[in-house]
Amino acid sequence: MLSTVWDYVVVGGGLAGSVISSRMLEYNSSLNILLIEAGEDTRSRTDILYTNATNLMGGELDWQYPTKPVSALNDRSLVYTKAKAWAVALRSTLVDYDEWAEIVGDSRWSYDSQLPWMKKAEDWFSTNSTAQHGNGGPLHVASVTSTGRNAGENLGRAELTETRRNGLREFTPVIYPLDGITVLTDTLVERIILAKNCSDGELRATGVQLANGTQISSKNVILAAGAYRSLQLLMLSSIGDSEELQKHNISKLKNPEKGLALGSDNPLFSQPEFATGYPIDWVVSTDIDKTGLAAAIAKDEGAVPDAATHSLLKTGRSFLENFIIYQAYSASNPTVPLDGSHIYTNVVSFLPTSHGTVGLECTSPATGPVINLNYLKTEVDRYVYREGIRQMTKVMLNTTFGKEFITGENAPNAFEPVSLDDTDDYLNSHLAAVVTTWHPHGTCSMGKVVDSEFKVKGVKGLRVVDASVLPVPMAAHLMAPLYAMAEQAAAIITDNA
């Protein structure tokens, strides 16, 4: 089997890898496709399908990448799980997609152009929203009512939409069938095999080498290993920043334009007890005060921003996601009783301007990459979070609902309960408690490392298709945008777009 020269080797059997493998074969049944996944084959496991499947975090399916200590978090190190999927279907705002298209110079990545691919992936629970939602696709998306939250206009309150069918999670390598595709699981790829044309020096990917030394030949290689591993594999294959490669005595073959910045969303005051599942059915997306935002931008950039042209000041931006959970999660604070007397609130920042980095720990693919998050390095990020805390505090303490039901915050140790008149400095001190929603992206961004058709610049036969190519932060949980992106990618790669 491995002696075959494959048409495509796809590295990574997660969301993107499963979608593009399945769809490419659907578009061209003559293709010989090998899908390589480092983890085990979980298609027959039922324990990942239920609402409490986040209990798997920290278990045998979780890669548990530790980050470097984060200075803004009192030098805490976070653990980036790779075994979570909460099934939240949120597409992001129209302005995010249109900015994506503008940055890469390709209208195919605008909201209107991606909408057909969103609909192709989708089996929306109702037939009353055909302008924005699809029916008959692989991915069942259910909500209590159709609200428009997934119509490119996220601001406001909406029921939570999730990818569940009959209460069970939709699992990508099952709903996108891999029949006819050769799948290798428990198989770690060490590097991409690159050949240089003697006459013009042009690089071409000719296959991959496994961690056990086996070499597999292929006409094309597609990396879909995620925002950490795809970049790590590029670097282990001599593609990447010269300084980083030199640290590990790796000879540089290609140094892409600087686009290797890690972006991620990070929620406020999230607790480990989230692993028991969500007793929640609605969310609220909000904007923030633009005057204060402009002042924060000026502090970061050294000049007053132009309100008409600055990216963050565009109309329609969704900066925060807010939700209230109908019970307490108290393991991190044993003084909070689980007797129905407490609820739990959470605030998520969607458009961080602080960017991290991903590097190599060593030259072994079995060792995870070095992850520096750089959370809360910018005044914009701190301002957005302060606004989020203030918005939630007003809801809890200064609305009819809040005054009727809420007496105040059960504050973490060493803190006083939040109030309506808290200072910026006091709220900044709360920010050291943030954790993460595990939405890494942008490490191989489109327009810099790859072009708008996912081709790694300067290397023929090599593409990257996963969250690492997202060129802008998205006001979303990344699952829905990635389904649409992978759908269109498969069509582009096989000339069916």
UniProtKB/TrEMBL annotation:
UniProt: FAD binding residues = V189, W438, H439
Q: Where is the Glucose-methanol-choline oxidoreductase C-terminal domain?
A: 352-486
Gene Ontology MF, one: flavin adenine dinucleotide binding
Q: Record's family?
A: Belongs to the GMC oxidoreductase family.
Species source reads Colletotrichum salicis
Q: Which residues form the Glucose-methanol-choline oxidoreductase N-terminal domain?
A: 180-244
Keywords of this protein's UniProt record, alphabetized? FAD, Flavoprotein
Task: List, from the UniProt record, the residues annotated as the active site of this protein.
Answer: H439 (proton donor), H477 (proton acceptor)
Required co-factor(s) are: FAD
One Pfam family cited in the UniProt record for this chain: GMC_oxred_C
InterPro entries xref list:
FAD/NAD-bd_sf, GMC_OxRdtase, GMC_OxRdtase_N, GMC_OxRtase_C
Does the keyword section mention Flavoprotein? yes
What's the name of the protein? GMC oxidoreductase
